[in-house]
């Protein structure tokens, strides 16, 4: 056995070199580290319809990225951890906490109504985790969380339409049809109902409309006799509101039974999806609703270059289901999260991911996203138009854009028409 | 103005028919058999989900499916009483409360597990939308039919309880189980029949409710509350009283929400409280 005597100095020298050798690559090349994106979504419950496009979108992104994300020339394994909020704000906060503390996600995402997004954003703000959300109107997100327009938030960012913008768009669309400008309102006692009542009522006089508002009611209701009586005696020719799909179906049945025949029915939430209007059958024709994204949107994905029409076609071909406006926002949520991660200076530092979101200037499939432009701090407003359900070719009804006054870049496909009562 | 008030009353009376249907089974078990079934609302919701599944598979009208299921509903009520609830008979008021409370929790969570928390509604077809013009008022054909069904069912049950031999036996056992036992009328034989009839009313209520309005696994208790109020308002033991109780609740809801939509449920409870103060035994109580 041969021995190699190693002196004290020699040992220290080679030891130090070896240490340096193992430490160096980390500094110089950034070894692959699993990037974790947390997602809180209403997979079940009354809001489950908002998650319909999610599985397909996730599959598509996985195929596109190969389960990896390229950051500064290094391919990092990518993990998207999905948790169900069960359409319940308390549950949303709980699963967000779990994603932060146990799964230690690098960036948090969430979508679909203030009931899902706000509790998740609040958890992230407290824990110092970068949070990027969409599909939640800006006002309930910013002011519903007691946002101060002078300060904004440190960690949380949200992009969607502004409710003020939406009310303007509705009034523009109603202007197209000759009515007595009397609006019957169905605003329930929840986040959306309270916000809508304030914004619509505040604008009514300026726009020359009169609002018949029987008051906030608790859901589930099922008994709409008093509202229908009030609308009939006031002669309301426009019905506007924000109701979940089953409630709206109950209202429509009662309205038919009691011969309420308005010229316009604009119902947010309940008529946004093809699946939600299906139970109405022929009565779905002529219903109008705000449109946040459609196959005819003029925007392209900054991630893959796919156009809105191509994305919609791919979805319909793969699933056999009709496309809905949530599809664009599902896709955009991951696009924007990837963009922030790619521009982050260090993946180990939450603040640098946060700064990458704050400085975002990205062309997504739902429009340009830039959180410096507002209208409120930490928010970015996406374009909004009004659509009307008209007889379709491939599917029973198509949501056709009928008014683009507030977002002229989105092409219109028809005119707002009066509902024909059979 | 007169027209508006008349309309509110008519629509309230019609929805009162639905409430009465819902409360009918409770009126039987509470008023005649003298026990409180906490799971009453949940059992109706359970039947609604059964109808949902079967109409989905068969593609038939929910009313047709309900008609075919009537014997099954009777059998379920019979089995429930014979093998579960019967064990608590004669042991005071508390054990049956606990047993049905447990049943309520089991049904709610079972449905949540099986169907998820989504809100559902069944489609009744064209009849659901048909309207009838009676003078100055528009009346829905479907609510009118439900009301007439409630009246018919109550007339039938009333005749069953107070005109037939088995009805007399049920009442005899309810009045004094020990004395009835002495003359050979054991509650173990009589009560399951009564509960079977309750099962039938539950199925009828489930089919009417699931077409009229929405349901989800957790809605049972809130529907039970309205049913309770209808039974107590009308007076224990009086089936016609239950119908009047349901009508009063429906009309009160409509007048409440005429003031402000948020007053709908409040008005219902207020009327109930006022009635309790002035006539605690109910409007048409049988002594």
From TrEMBL, chain A:
Lineage: superkingdom: Bacteria
GO-annotated biological processes: amino acid transport
Transmembrane segments: none
Signal sequence region: 1-30
Pfam family, one: Peripla_BP_6
Domain Leucine-binding protein: residue ranges: 34-392
Keyword annotations from UniProtKB, A to Z: Amino-acid transport, Signal, Transport
Keyword Isomerase: no
SUPFAM superfamilies hit by this protein: Periplasmic binding protein-like I
Cross-referenced PANTHER family: LEUCINE-SPECIFIC-BINDING PROTEIN (PTHR30483), PERIPLASMIC BINDING PROTEIN OF ABC TRANSPORTER FOR NATURAL AMINO ACIDS (PTHR30483:SF6)
Family: Belongs to the leucine-binding protein family.
Protein name according to UniProt: Branched-chain amino acid transport system substrate-binding protein
UniProtKB/TrEMBL annotation, chain B:
Domain of life according to the entry: Bacteria
UniProt-listed InterPro entries: ABC_transp_permease, BCAA_transport_permease
GO annotation, biological process: amino acid transport
Keyword Cell division: no
Family: Belongs to the binding-protein-dependent transport system permease family. LivHM subfamily.
Any one GO MF annotation of this record: transmembrane transporter activity
Keywords per UniProt: Amino-acid transport, Cell membrane, Membrane, Transmembrane, Transmembrane helix, Transport
Matches recorded under PANTHER family: AMINO ACID ABC TRANSPORTER PERMEASE PROTEIN, BRANCHED-CHAIN AMINO ACID TRANSPORT SYSTEM PERMEASE PROTEIN LIVH
Organism the protein comes from: Roseiarcus fermentans
The protein, known as: Amino acid/amide ABC transporter membrane protein 1 (HAAT family)
Subcellular localization: Cell membrane
Keyword hit for Cell membrane: yes
Bilayer-spanning residue ranges: 6-28, 60-80, 92-112, 141-162, 190-212, 224-249
Cellular component, GO annotation: plasma membrane
Major localization class: membrane
Membrane-topology descriptor: Multi-pass membrane protein
